[in-house]
Every structure is written in structure tokens, then in C-alpha cells.
From TrEMBL:
Transmembrane segments: 20-43, 50-73, 85-108
Naturally occurring in which organism (per UniProt): Mycolicibacterium duvalii
Protein name, entry field: DUF4233 domain-containing protein
One Pfam family per UniProt: DUF4233
Cross-referenced InterPro entries: DUF4233 (IPR025327)
Keyword Transmembrane helix on entry: yes
Keyword Membrane: yes
Amino acid sequence: MSVPNSAPDPWRSFRGVMAGTLILEAIVVLLALPVVGAVGGGLTPVSTSYVIGAAVLLVLMAGVQGRSWAIWANLAVQLLLVGGWVIYPGLGFIGVLFLVVWLLIAYLRAEVLRRQRRGLLPGQQADPE
């Protein structure tokens, strides 16, 4: 029989949210392939490599969300995606959209960290028993 944890770990679920967001973002980036192929200059070796490479990078990043630097690396990857504006403006728009999402996630991380340091998280409250 296992002993239950004394307090829930807020960072475990937070890592899951970050990994899930990266997987969702990879799917959205891959869905841009047909759009890039049908509009503008079409699919070139450069645009195809960029889109597929960005999606692979996002999936790989989902595996390192337990690291302390992961949130900052996630934000840096968004700048790479915003740079996709050069290939096709829709890719840059995807980058801007997810940059806003990641800025919100970074804010929520800072808020959870602030509350954890003050002992205000629900798992840190004493049982009323």
C-alpha cells in the first residue's frame, strides 16, 4: 500500500499544461503546411523544412518540461516561430498567437510561485480537523 503525499505538487500539473500546450502548438504548426502550400510561394524545401523542423522541436521540447529553464526555452521557441513571418505571414501569426499564450503561462507560473512562497496554495493550508 502506498503512502499518500502530504501535499499536492502544483508543479506536476503545471508541467503537464506546458507539455500539452507544446503538443497542441506542434499540431497547429503542422496544420499550416497545406496553407503554405496553397498560398503565396507554395511549399519549397526551405518552407517545408522550417514547418516540420519547428513542429519536431516543439514535440521534443514537450519532453523537457521538468527542467527549471523550460518556460524560458518555450518563450525563445516562440520567437523562432514569429520569425516564420518571413516564410509565410500565417506562420508568424501562429508564433504571435502562441507567444501571447506562453506569456500568460509565464505569468501564471510566477503567480503560483509567489503564492507558494507565501504559503497560500490550497495544498499548504492546514486541515480543519
